[in-house]
Structures are given as C-alpha cells and as structure tokens.
C-alpha cells in the first residue's frame, strides 16, 4: 500500500519590536516547510488570531499561485478602518471565492 506524502508543515511565530519610547510593534509570521520565504505582517495591534488567520489565507493563495488574489485581499484590508471593539470584519475577493472573516 503506497504511503501518502506528509502534509506540508506550517510554522507560525511572533516577535515584538520595541522602540526607545517603549512602543511595541508586533510581527506575525508564517513559514511553510520547503519554501524559501516567510510571510510577515507588522502591526501595532496584538491581534494574534486575526493576523494568523489572514496569514493562512494569504499563504494558501500563494501556494495556489494566486498572487493577484493575495494582493487584492491585502489591498482591501489596507482600505478598511479599524473596527470597534467586539465588531466583526469580513473581507471578500471579487475575483475568487475566498473570504476572510474575523471577530466575535
């Protein structure tokens, strides 16, 4: 019976950059085994779950060679204003069936 190849492992990690005034900027990263690059998001917001969900969506798009869709998703995100506490955020791609929702 043939064995299935192991699924590609994905690692997530976070780091914090602190300036001289004590202000922090968080780095959220996703590294897929066998790749030569890492996808990272820098933010002043410690939204671990939201950014890891976003990184997974972007990573999945990149693995499928859907670079323009990943760029569209990130551009749509940049155009959004910060949500109120406990509010939900939903981003959709016009060019595909991918969507990203985060919130309570």
Automatic annotation (TrEMBL):
Pfam families the record matches: DENN (PF02141)
Keyword set, alphabetical order: Guanine-nucleotide releasing factor
Classification via InterPro entries: cDENN_dom, DENND1A/B/C, Tripartite_DENN
Domain UDENN residue range list: 1-104
Full protein name: DENN domain-containing protein 1C
Organism: Saguinus oedipus
């Amino acid at each position: 019976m043939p064995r299935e190849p192991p699924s590609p492992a994905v690692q997530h990690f976070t780091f914090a950059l602190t300036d001289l005034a004590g202000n922090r900027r968080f780095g959220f990263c996703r590294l897929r085994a066998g790749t030569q690059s890492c996808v990272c998001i820098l933010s002043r917001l410690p939204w671990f779950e939201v950014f890891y969900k976003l990184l997974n969506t972007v990573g999945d798009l990149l693995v499928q060679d859907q670079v323009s869709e990943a760029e569209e998703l990130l551009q749509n995100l940049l155009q959004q204003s910060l949500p109120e506490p406990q509010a939900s955020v939903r981003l959709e791609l016009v060019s595909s069936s991918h969507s990203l929702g985060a919130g309570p």
